[in-house]
Amino acid sequence: MKVLKFGGKSLDNGAGIARVQEIIIDSYQRGERPVVVVSARGGSTDALLALIDQAVRGEDFAAALERFWEHQVAGTALAFYPERQRLSQLLTGIALVRECSARLRDELVSYGELLSVQYLAHLLGRQGYDARAIDAGDFFVTDSQYGAAAVDLERSRGRCVELFGRLPEGAIPIVTGFIARDAAGLRTTLGRNGSNYSAALLANFLDASLMENYTHVDGIYTANPELVPEVRRIDELSYGDAAELAQFGAEILHTKTIEPLQAKDIPLRVLSTFCYGSGTGGTLVTSQPRRKVVRALASQSRRALIHFEGRNMLGHSGVDARIFGALRDADVSAGLVSQGSTERGTAIVVAEGDADRAVEALKTEFRQDLIEGRTTRIYAEKGLAVVAIIGLNLLEFDRPYRALVRNRVLPILLSNTVPDNTLCLVVTEQERAKALKVIHGELFERPKRVHLAIIGHGTVGGALIGQLIEQREQLREQKHIDLRIFAIADSRHLLLDAEGIGLGWEERLEECAQEGLLEEQLVDYGQSHALENMILVDNTASSYIASLYPFFASYGFDIVSSNKRSNIAPYADYLYLRQTLQLHRRSYRYETNVGAGLPLIDNLKLLHLAGEQITRIHGLFSGSLSYIFNRLGEDPSLTLRAVVEESARLGLTEPDPREDLSGEDVARKVLILVRELDVAAELGDVDWVNPVPEALGELSLEDFWQRFEELEQAIEAERAACAPDEVLRYVGDIVWDGQRGEAHLSAGLRRVRRDSPLGRVRGADSCFEIYTESYGSQPIVIQGAGAGAVVTARGVFGDVLRLAEGYES
């Protein structure tokens, strides 16, 4: 004999009820002697509770009651006349007195199951099967704790065996779940997931070979699929692990469901009604699963933490007994408990709805202690949730914990259960979904998700987005990293997609106007979708966006930027950002600020942190200027105008070439590099020479081009001064005297030897000579492409990848 249990969503109108009949008939025809247990049909219990609330408020419930009945009779010839009359009488009585007792509430909600069994038995009867609708109250005997009654197992077992023994051969029992009666014959209910418990008790009483629990999902998962979309189904599970999952909020199970099955070693299989016949085996719960260690996550929402604080409690016996005695008398069930080693405080997790009652009970019990100061405070912290990790102990919690901290989820309480296969965290309700996603990602998911918000989609930003989209699948397969662009923004538009933005983003972005403050929208979206591992990628030249870095860091974003504005800001702002990053444990990567994609800043940091005394950094800091002066040196017949126009066509210079020719960008890079040596310099400290005559700097772009020959004459004069073995370069220079703590910073046109590292550079390469005390007169030379959107985008991509790979550690 086999027990089949069907949940409310399976029994709703449409495909579900048709599939339920198919499953029952298949089992019957295979000779499995099915006993069927059903919940109220989809939404029926909620509808009855809503009707009760309407009646209590004195509202007209007639229309809502009619809709309830339309749902119950749809597709059948059933009329339910006695039930209609009784429900109407009960609701009318409630409306008159504006009150509904717990006993009356149990009677009213029981109609969901009573109607459900009649409905299903009627449908099976129309197909020629002897289906018998059975009220579980005819054999389940409980106490009178209405709403969550306890079953008298021995009396119920005897009545059950007797009732089922009278059924004719070949009958299919259709039994109500959830409901029972007390010793006086009054209706009771078994509490949350009571239908599953009813089915498990039936399986125990009737010595079933198997219980199959049909739901809307095809098994038990590593987490709640509604909160963690990337869950995995667990094929097999032990009774113990299933009970732990049920204890900590797994919706499909209830702790009491496991006990009757485990007592007689009856397997439980959790299946989906809607996947019947597809070959999926669901989840099998047994005493001897093939996999001994199973990890899964469960959570409880709407929890509160009761804080009990006092002084001079060490050595005073009986305090804990008084605490738990007070909670017992107030009918408050305690969950997790934490106590300091000095016994100065105790924290207890309870249901949020019990919190006020618990605090009042404790204040009453410890009234004199509060007056005398031995107990200092008793209060409730509400709005919390419990996240439980099944199959994990503290020794294995290091990576999940680091990931939680990195994602700004700091547990309020941490508890390792006995036995030590379950670890519980108390977090805020708002952090519950994110905590589940972060922990699940650490325990189960490959690849790891990283969420990118990209601001700016010009030449560099657009190239980066293309590279990210193109490389996403390869990174998933080879690096086990899933880089998801969840936001693309400019000054007027903001495109958001938590699943990841792909091809066609340009058209989608044009349709998404930005409303409100960009920073608030990005933070709110990340929080509402519980996005983990978030990186802000700034490809603008905006001072405003750069000023927001501390804000983003405080809300859990790491930062990658090709924007130099933050690193050339006043030194006080520069330090404030780094202090904020340190406070919130955020990272900031900006390798492309100097040298495009060259590995300059990281290596400079390593040398400095390793104690290497850097004495000079000398080189071609601008790939654009490098290209211009390289071309002039290669071909004396070329004019400056021709080279500048050529570089613009190649995308190496800005539309207004004065932005490059002025050398200001080199001065900025000099400042960025010297600050990496912990020198508190400002941009005004750089001795920067602008080759563009001052008179040309104030002109419109059109007028500048008309008078361009004035600049050419100035540059030609510099070229003419070069010796045959010399070439002209725009050079940045940092000379650092560590003994005196003095730095000389400069940027300007310099004549260099053709056979020197700076003289041999070709194309748009940058070249940096780093002199140190250890290396003496032989510099470390870093040379390579120093300009171009694609090169810079690759550098930004590299910074993103280094951050993402760091999330694995």
List keywords for this structure.
809 residues, alpha/beta, Carbamate kinase, VC0802-like, Rossmann fold, 4 domains, eight-stranded mixed sheet, six-stranded antiparallel sheet
- Return the domain count: 4
**Strand order in the sheet with the most strands:** 3-5-2-1-8-12-13-11
Outline the low-pLDDT stretches.
Answer: none
- Count of helical stretches: 31
Query: Strand percentage, roughly?
Result: 15-25%
- The level of helicity is 40-55%
Rg is 36 Å
Secondary-structure arrangement, i.e. CATH architecture of the largest domain = 3-Layer(aba) Sandwich
**Superfamily (CATH H level) name of the largest domain:** Acetylglutamate kinase-like
Main sheet: strands, sense, barrel? 8 strands, mixed
Q: How would you characterize the overall build of this protein?
A:
This protein has an 8-stranded mixed beta sheet with strand order 3-5-2-1-8-12-13-11, sandwiched between helices. Strands 15-16-14-17-19-18 form a 6-stranded antiparallel beta sheet. It contains 31 helices and 31 strands. With 809 residues, it is an alpha/beta fold. Helix 1 (15-29) links the parallel strand 1 (2-6) and strand 2. The protein is elongated, with a radius of gyration of 36 Å. The mean pLDDT is 91. The two termini are 52 Å apart. The longest helix is centred in the middle third of the chain and has 20 residues, at 459-478. It folds into 4 domains: 2-294, Acetylglutamate kinase-like (Carbamate kinase); 297-443, VC0802-like; 448-591 and 796-806, NAD(P)-binding Rossmann-like Domain (Rossmann fold), CATH 3.40.50; 601-786, Dihydrodipicolinate Reductase, domain 2 (2-Layer Sandwich).
